[in-house]
Structure formats: structure tokens, C-alpha cells
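**Fold in C-alpha cells:**
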Amino acid sequence: MTEQPGERPADHSYTGPDDPQVVALPPAEFAFPGPLRDQLVAAILSGAKTSTTGLVADYEHEGESLPRAGERAAVLDSDGRRVAVIETTDVRVVPLAEVDLQHALDEGEGDDSVAEWRATHERFWRSPELLAALDDPDFTVDDSTPLVLQRFRLMADLR
């Protein structure tokens, strides 16, 4: 059976959130715990969210390498439970000014334009929580800010 565009591939090799294969995966955390994370995780689980955006500065601050195609991760909900497994399918590093409409739409957050997507993301990137996480109260973004555009697919719903 071949995978059709938009279909979620079934992966029956995971027995649940406590499966040793899942526990061994690195965590994938979207936003901070709370309503936004809950919304993003729900969009991943529904298949509406198939891309995400990160700041290169955040990866650098955390000492983390950028995601790579083929890597899998366990999606954590606001309570820290592993609720899904995703697999990265593509990674691009681009300046903020080069984010395209398809990427914005594939984030599954309801934005209908790049301008709307950018406004919501800039609010998050300027939030006290993110500035504290970066240890940089003066951090700001502009057209040249390098971003990590990550595409992924849902491999397993662990709920």
C-alpha cells in the first residue's frame, strides 16, 4: 500500500507512550506548556500541523543540533506525556523574510497569510517566556533572523 498525499502513515511498532522505543526518543516540545502547546499538539494529532518554525538562536542557546530528515521524536503534551511520534521529513534554514505561504499554512495554526503567520510568531518570539528562555531580554527578530523550518509527519498517535 502506498502513502497518499495528506495521509498519515500507520506505524504499529509502538505499543504506547511507555514503549522503550518511544521513551528513547528525544522529546519534541511545541511552545511552552499551556493553551498554546495544547492547541499545537491537537493540530499535530489531527494531521493539520505538518510543519513548525524554530529560531536558530534558540537551538544555539540550548546547545542543540538542528533537526535532520529521518529523525524521530516523541511529542510531549503540556503535562509532559508522550502523546505522539513524529518524523522529520525536511529542514531548511532561511531568513524570516523568506518564509513562504505553504509553510505558514502547513503549520496548521489557522493563519491565512504569511503576514498573519509572522505577526503571531513575532508575538511569541517577543514573549516574556521566550526572552527568559533565551536569557536575552533584548532579543528581537527582523527580516534577516535565521529560522529553522521543519516539516514532519505523524508516525504514531500514542493516546
Notes: The two ends are 25 Å apart (CA to CA). Residues 35-46 form the longest helix (12 residues). DSSP finds six helices and five strands in the chain. Helices lie at 20-23, 35-46, 56-62, 101-106, 114-125, 128-133.
